[in-house]
Every structure is written in structure tokens, then in C-alpha cells.
Write a structure and sequence with these properties.
GO terms for molecular function: lipase activity. By secondary structure, this protein is α/β, with parallel strands linked by helices. It has a single domain, classed as SGNH hydrolase (Rossmann fold). It is built from eleven helices and seven strands. The protein binds 2-acetamido-2-deoxy-beta-D-glucopyranose (NAG) (4 copies).
Length: 374
């Protein structure tokens, strides 16, 4: 008995010492991690682990058919890739189980967190309205979870749990991408200027973050917008210019990311205890898209699954136009699984950078530091 105890104490002290030497310009006090802290996931198809399986929508907004899921799960789960996505890896690194989709039937234990993300969803109500779970609705689901936790654990303990949790977001890409598909006007974001449109997206994200803060949330992780104008699904859209990026979307991604960082910085100053981690997805994905071999891939711009040039036509699984599609032999040779989404292997690389990457990729904290702070 005594030896077991001293061994435990030794391990705990070692962990404590390790947590103290994590180099950081991330504010906050490190403390001993006794219990698993929950992970709540919000946003779009980069994070959706199957919520869209349970809503009435189009096949184009779902991934619950072969070959999605072929690499890791061996069956389609609703994740928009061959295997695991970023929240799956983050959960693993945080020693949590896989975080289930909120709409999964029978789910009623939220102690480890839950995933509200919805493929095609955006911060704006209007983005793919009626086909997705938009961010405001995701917030309303979170409030139901908060209420259930309060009933189960009592107010104080629920609040402690929610304060220890990490809230992970990937949102905005569809707000900028959807008008390309649905709005055929010359100026995509008409009647708004680019800045006004970004202002609405950021305003709605800020609202959600503040509401979660009011319920006790303190630690927020954001994946910035990627190079949305340069992904396979987009570079096939401009007649006569197949293969070139859509400049207006590139601009919007930059304006958005800058505005998001500014808001997060302001919230950290204004809201006591608020901390965040921002992942530079734009640079990380662009580097792999442009120099795939440097990161162990054979193909950067062409997707593994789809049809047409760059397999950019969103027809993976044969549910789209023409039904015919191509599927590569080895998804891990590719950065993109389908025209819009990274492969499991690319997501694993991003997750490692988010979890423990230095401040060239993720700042002011990385996700490991967020989990580690009180
Ligand atoms: C979203 O749209 C609905 C109507 O469809 C409206 O009632 C609601 O207030 C809107 N929410 C926001 C945040 O704009
Ligand atoms: C798209 O185009 C219509 C006009 O056809 C316009 O009313 C709408 O506001 C536009 N903008 C967006 C962002 O959907
Ligand atoms: C949220 O988005 C709606 C459009 O969907 C917009 O009218 C509203 O002003 C935005 N809210 C904020 C706080 O920016
Ligand atoms: C960030 O990148 C620069 C240039 O690539 C490099 O010199 C620097 O050491 C990196 N910073 C860290 C903290 O690794």
C-alpha cells in the first residue's frame, strides 16, 4: 500500500514539474490535471462527427456513405474524410474518448463533452439555411447540455466542469464559400462590402463565444479559415481558369482571420479568465497544398476522391452529378480526401501542430496549454 502511494505521489510530482516547465507566453496558472476536462466542438464539416446523419438535408451535406470512413473506422460515420478528424485527435491527445455527435440517438452523458458541428454550417443563419445546423442553433443545443449538467451535478459543480472545458471551433468557411455556389451575382457578397460581410460573420461568432463564457466557458480553440479559394472544389469552378485560385475567397479568408484574431485578443483583455488558442490553418494547409512532398504526401492539389479535374467535383461516393467517381488507392498520399476536406493524415499533422505546436503555428497558447490551465 505504502509503495503504491509513494509511487503515485512521485508520478504526480513529475507531472506537476513537467507542467511547470512548459514554455509559454500563454496567460494562466498551470495546475495538476486530476480529471479529464471536457471537449465541446462547434462548427462545420471539418469537425462534424455525424450530426448531419440525423437531419433532413441533401446528400451533398452528408458523409454517411462509402468511401468516407474507409481508413480508420472501416465504415462511414458521417465524418467528411477517410478516417479521423481534428477533434478526434485532440480528444485522443487529451486522453478523452471520441467525442460523440450531439444528435446521436440515446446520448445523455456529456461529462467528456459533445460535438455540435454540422457539415455546411456557418456563423450566419442564411448559410445553407434549412440544410444545416447553424452556429446559433448549435449554441442553443449547448445551453440544453448546460441545463442537463446543472440538474445532474448541481450549479457549482456544473460550472466548474464547464470552466475546465475546452471549446473548439471551426466556422466561417461556409459563410464565404456558400455564396460562390448559390449567389450568381458578380459581386459575391452583395449587397455587403467584404468588410461588412466579415463583420457579420465575426459578430455572430463573438456572440456565441460570449454566451458560452456566461455559462462558465473560459478556454477557446479556433481553427482559422484555410485557403478556401485554392481547394480542389473551388479551383475547378472558373471557366477557362481551371486550377487557379478564387482571389475573392482568398481575400475574405485573410480579412476574416485578421478580424477574428483581433476579437479574440480583445475578449482576453475584457473578460476575466478568458483564454484562447488560434491555429494558423491558412499557412499550414497552403504549405502542404503547395509542397506536398515536404510533408510526406504525393499529391497536394488533387483530391483522393471525386471526379473531373483535380477530382474537385464533389461527387465522392457517387451521390452527386453523373454518379461516376474516382477513388485513390492510398488516401495518406493525399492532402485532400475529397474536394473540400483534408485526409486523416493531413488532419493528424494539423492536430499535432494545434496540440503542441510552437507559436509559429498556434498562438498565444496551444491546445495542450489550454487543457493544462485552470
Ligand atoms: C435566424 O433566423 C431565424 C429565422 O429563420 C430568426 O428567428 C433568428 O432570430 C435568426 N437568428 C439570428 C442570430 O440571426
Ligand atoms: C446574393 O444575391 C442576391 C441578389 O440576387 C442578394 O439579394 C443577396 O443578398 C446576395 N448576397 C448573399 C451574401 O447571399
Ligand atoms: C449576425 O448575422 C446576421 C445575418 O445573419 C446579421 O444581420 C447580424 O447583424 C449579425 N450579428 C452581429 C452581432 O453581427
Ligand atoms: C518560427 O519560424 C522561423 C522561420 O521559419 C524560425 O526561424 C523560428 O525559429 C521559428 N520559431 C519557433 C519558436 O520555432
Amino acid at each position: 500500500m505504502a509503495t503504491i502511494r509513494s509511487c503515485c505521489i512521485f508520478v504526480l510530482l513529475a507531472l506537476y514539474a513537467a507542467s511547470l516547465v512548459i514554455p509559454s507566453n500563454c496567460l494562466g496558472h498551470f495546475f495538476l490535471q486530476k480529471e479529464h476536462k471536457p471537449l465541446f466542438v462547434f462548427g462545420d464539416s471539418l469537425f462534424d462527427a455525424g450530426n448531419n446523419n440525423y437531419i433532413n438535408t441533401l446528400k451533398a451535406e452528408q458523409a454517411n456513405f462509402w468511401p468516407y470512413g474507409e481508413t480508420y473506422f472501416g465504415y462511414p460515420t458521417g465524418r467528411y474524410t477517410d478516417g479521423r478528424q481534428i477533434p478526434d485527435f485532440i480528444a485522443e491527445y487529451a486522453k478523452l474518448p471520441l467525442i460523440p455527435p450531439y444528435l446521436q440517438p440515446g446520448l445523455n452523458n456529456y461529462i467528456y463533452g459533445v460535438n455540435f458541428a454540422s457539415g455546411g454550417g456557418g456563423a450566419l443563419n442564411e448559410t445553407s439555411q434549412g440544410l444545416v445546423i447553424d452556429l446559433q442553433t448549435q449554441l442553443s443545443y449547448f445551453k440544453k447540455v448546460e441545463k442537463q449538467l446543472r440538474q445532474k451535478l448541481g450549479y457549482a459543480q456544473a460550472k466548474t466542469l464547464l470552466s475546465s472545458a475546452v471549446y473548439l471551433f471551426s466556422v466561417g468557411s461556409n459563410d464565404y464559400g456558400a455564396p460562390v455556389t448559390f449567389n450568381k451575382t458578380k459581386d459575391l457578397f452583395e449587397p455587403y462590402s467584404q468588410e461588412e460581410y466579415v463583420g457579420m460573420v465575426i459578430g455572430n461568432i463573438t456572440h456565441v463565444v460570449k454566451e458560452i463564457y456566461m455559462k462558465g466557458g473560459r478556454k477557446f480553440g479556433f481553427v482559422g479559415i484555410g485557403p478556401i479559394g485554392c481547394i480542389p472544389a473551388l479551383i475547378v469552378l472558373q471557366p477557362g481558369k481551371i486550377g487557379s485560385c478564387l482571389d475573392e475567397l482568398t481575400q475574405m479568408a485573410h480579412i476574416h482571420n485578421k478580424a477574428l484574431l483581433k476579437v479574440l485578443h480583445t475578449l482576453q483583455i475584457k473578460l476575466k479568465g478568458f483564454r484562447y488558442s488560434y491555429f494558423d490553418f491558412y499557412t499550414s494547409l497552403s504549405e502542404r497544398l503547395n509542397n506536398p512532398t515536404k510533408y510526406g504526401f504525393k499529391e497536394g492539389k488533387k483530391a483522393c476522391c471525386g471526379s473531373g479535374p483535380y477530382r474537385g467535383i464533389n461527387n465522392c461516393g457517387g451521390k452527386g452529378p453523373g454518379k461516376e467517381y474516382e477513388l485513390c488507392d492510398n488516401p495518406s498520399d493525399y492532402v485532400f480526401f475529397d474536394g473540400n476536406h483534408p485526409t486523416e493524415r493531413a488532419s493528424q499533422q494539423f492536430s499535432k501542430l494545434m496540440w503542441s505546436g510552437n507559436s509559429n503555428f498556434t498562438w498565444p497558447c496551444n491546445i495542450q496549454e489550454l487543457f493544462g490551465t485552470l
